[in-house]
Amino acid sequence: MKLLRGKAEASLDDRLVALAEAADLADGRLDQAVVGRARDVVARAGMRRSLSVEHTAVALAGATGSGKSSIFNALAGRELAEVGATRPTTSKAQAALWGPDGSGPLLDWLGVPLRHVVGEGSGLILLDLPDHDSIVLSHRLEVDRLVGVVDLLVWVLDPQKYADAAVHERYLKALGRHRDNMLVVLNQIDRLPERAIRRCLDDLRGLLAVDGLEGVPVLGVSARTGQGLPDLRTALDRKVSRRTAWAARLTADVGTAADALSETAGGATAFTPVPQTALVCPLSRALSEAAAVPLVVRAVAKAHRHRAVAATGWPVTRWVRGLRPDPLRRLHLSRKGRTSLPAPTAVQLTMVDTAVRDVGAAVSEGLPEPWASAVRHAARSRSDELGDALDRAVATASLGASKKPRWWRVIGTLQWMVTGTMAAGALWLLALFALGYLLLPKPPTPTVGQAPWPTVLLVGGAVAGVVIAFVSRVVAWIGGRRRARKVAKTLRAAIDRVGEELVITPACAEQGRYVRFVDRVSSAG
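The line above is the sequence of G domain-containing protein; the predicted structure tokens follow.
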């Protein structure tokens, strides 16, 4: 899928920066060969821009017998290349120079040692390449290398093989972005009748349109008779004089590399990311079960009631409460090592794994492969850390267990006062009993109605202590539920943070990497 040219005003510098960043973002996610080619384009652009921009390297490329060497000699005005009609005669590229000053480093970079100075001024460097269909492998490799780096390409075709799939499939279709730095020449038109020349040129233009090269200039020439050569010289002079062919070539290379990255990424189309808030709840429920949060919440409520009874219960019986273990302390939530929470069951582990996979699936929805796989992998990448992280989150969460309500102290003081009243009545009765037992005279005993005060104090203190203890237990039960709700909220927040840090954030970071990649590829293209 080709990217739209949405940022036609972007400079070559901006596109190169965007392509380099897109390649970095795609590293490890997309085909390394495609990523490597994108980086090669950036490196090659840096080298070409550091060399002479006053010279334009133009390559004559074609098949065996197409007559490119003949055109090379005709344009150079002298016999520089050996001409052969049926067998490859050019084994190494050679250059004809118009204005050689400053061209040396560029030709060294192009790897063209054979150079001929044929004129001055224009800055044209005309290269005669080996045949792209040569039976010699080194010839074909030389063509592939130079076709990938020269500033301007002139494809020389002949009436017999201009429709040959070798040139169209292997080269021309891959150069769809290079229409601005390409010419196509149909050589040997002197062998055709006038009517056939026009028909062949129209047919060739149709084939080029199929290759994605509609609008590329197509010229009919004859290297033998000179027909059409002035038009070819004029077209070359026009492009060379602008001194922009090198930039057009690099821009086309950047676009082609961006297209390849986009295609490898499944199209690199924009999409609407899933909000992180929509991912938290399902994952949090599974993690809470695995972290035994419901058990902790119940323990907090029970511990609150346990401690309330120990602080506000009837002193006569509250010591029995001290014989029972504290439900919260048994979980060892305050120690630095692992807690005593039960390990998650197989069912709970399966729920966590499913929830993690669901996060990966939700975040990767709408993403093309292989990036969707990278997102799903990122969601699971830190799953092995979940157990310890959940245990630490529960152990370090503020449960408020050390905070004792003020009313506990008030009620506790009141209970001791009531117990003191009961003890005073008991001691008073005991003293009266002792005096009677010793047959000593008893002092007068005040009464409340018919009931003596010592009895009122004893019975009233006991009843009041029990009633206060009962009311306190009811209030403690209500307080336990309230504290459990607060603790549940605190633990859920802690569990949410663990899920976000270890599951959601890595997945969304990979998603964000793709979003940035799409933006950079679009800018480069």
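Note on the example: The radius of gyration is 45 Å. The chain has a mean pLDDT of 85.
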